[in-house]
Amino acid sequence: MGDWSLIARYLKKEASQSEVDQLQKLVEHNPNLGQELDMLGHGLNNPGHSSLETFNANRAFERLTERFKKENLI
Fold first, then answer.
1. How far out from the chain centre does Cα 73 lie?
2. CA separation for the pair 33, 39 (Å, rounded)
3. Which of 15, 17, 54, 57 is disulfide-compatible with 10, CB 3.0–4.6 A?
4. Distance CA 58, CA 18 (A)
5. pTM, 2 dp
6. What distance in Å separates the CA atoms of residue 59 and residue 65, rounded to the nearest whole number?
7. Which ranges constitute the DSSP H helices of the chain?
8. Cα(43)–Cα(37) distance, rounded to whole angstroms?
9. How confident is the model over 33-60, as pLDDT tens digits?
10. Residue 33 in contact with residue 26, Cβ under 8 Å?
11. How far apart are CA 26 and CA 43, in angstroms?
């Protein structure tokens, strides 16, 4: 649950600097994770953006979970 909690705090811009550093290390080892975080962050921080109408948060987290499992992060 720690990674999800960290990701949630990061996306809500509530992560401490040490947490941001920790997440950056995960991204360095998993470049696709950075792209996913950018996509999630963009959607969450731009609520009027039309892509939110088709954004499926559950599917996004499923894909992220699949990637974490594939890369033995969870």
1. 14
2. 10
3. 15
4. 27
5. 0.51
6. 10
7. 2-11, 17-29, 31-45, 57-70
8. 10
9. 888 888 777 656 555 554 445 667 788 8
10. yes
11. 21
